[in-house]
Amino acid sequence: MSAVRVRQHPPPAPLDLCPIVVTTHTRTFAVIPAAGIGARMSAALPKQYLPFAGAPLLVRTLSRLLRVGWIERCYVVLAPDDRYWDTLVTPHLAQLPPAFAVAERLRVVRLGGTTRAHSVRAGLRVAHAEGFGDDDWALVHDAARPCLTTETIEHLHGSVGNSNVGGLIAIPATDTVKVATPHTSPNSFPVVERTVPRERIWLAQTPQLFRLAVLRQALDRFPDATDEASAVERLGLQPILVKGHWSNLKVTLPGDLELAQAIWSLQEDSLSDVG
Fold first, then answer.
1. Please, are residues 250 and 256 in contact by the beta-carbon 8 Å criterion?
2. Residue 101: domain span
3. SS3 annotation, the chain
4. Nearest 5°: phi and psi at 53?
């Protein structure tokens, strides 16, 4: 494993939205933004470093990505002043299976920012500098989604296929969706403004998989985007929605950690039974 430190530069000029020449030998890399502090967890550590199934949560997320051999490289984007990776994560990386080729496939990028888009952009710049091309695939995944399965990754990759844009894992809404009015005061209750037909509502997850050129342009133009797909949408493009599974949950609140550990254990037991 090697750490990558790149001098900060102004963002590259926006790319022209010309058709990407899709080749038969496109490559795929992953970007894992992990510079946040996870304030909603109210924990002593950033949530990506919380203990999870005998290792930091981030290690378990990385192990799910490294299982997939066609993901050539994983760029973990940390805050420049991150104090936890070297002491909490590095010792566990040596325990991952040799087939994961951690030393060759894992990069640490200490250029994360205060927003998700800033961190993802940093990972994309390093990937481009290391030889990934405009038509290659950038797979972005949340550090706090450790229960991602190989089947989900393969399903996304296969469904997006030869798209010139990309797509994302999402879940069709099953509950009735209400839009609330804004709160009129701190002590007031919200009230329903309208009901939205759930047939058209999908709940976005990760991974999200986009052509490198498309994603770089989208995040350069719309750095306030809350996820990669929304930035791409604001370019006037339409990402493909690929149905995922509820078990691919994101650890956001304290109760999520226990549920995710239960799901993880069941998944690992299933893998052991098969293998």
1. yes
2. 24-274
3. CEEECCCCCCCCCCCCCCCCCCCCCCCEEEEEECCCCCHHHCCCCCHHHCEECCEEHHHHHHHHHHCCCCEEEEEEECCCCCCCHHHHHHHHHCCCCHHHCHHHHEEEECCCCCCHHHHHHHHHHHHHHCCCCCCCEEEECCCCCCCCCHHHHHHHHHHHCCCCCEEEEEEECCCCEEEECCCCCCCCCCCEEEEECHHHCEEEEEEEEEEHHHHHHHHHHCCCCCCHHHHHHCCCCCCEEEECCCCCCCCCCHHHHHHHHHHHHHHHHHHHHHC
4. 50, 45
Residue 35 Cα to chain centre, angstroms: 12
pLDDT tens string 225-270: 999 999 999 999 999 999 999 999 999 998 999 999 999 999 998 8
Question: Residue 18 domain-assigned?
Answer: no
Token pair of 238 as six digits:
């339409």
Token pair recorded at residue 219 = 């995040």
Tell me whether residue 265 is in a domain. yes
* CATH number of the CATH domain containing 229: 3.90.550.10
CA atoms within 13 A on the CB side of 274: 6
pTM confidence score:
0.88
What's the domain count of the chain? 1
Q: Is residue 216 part of a domain?
A: yes
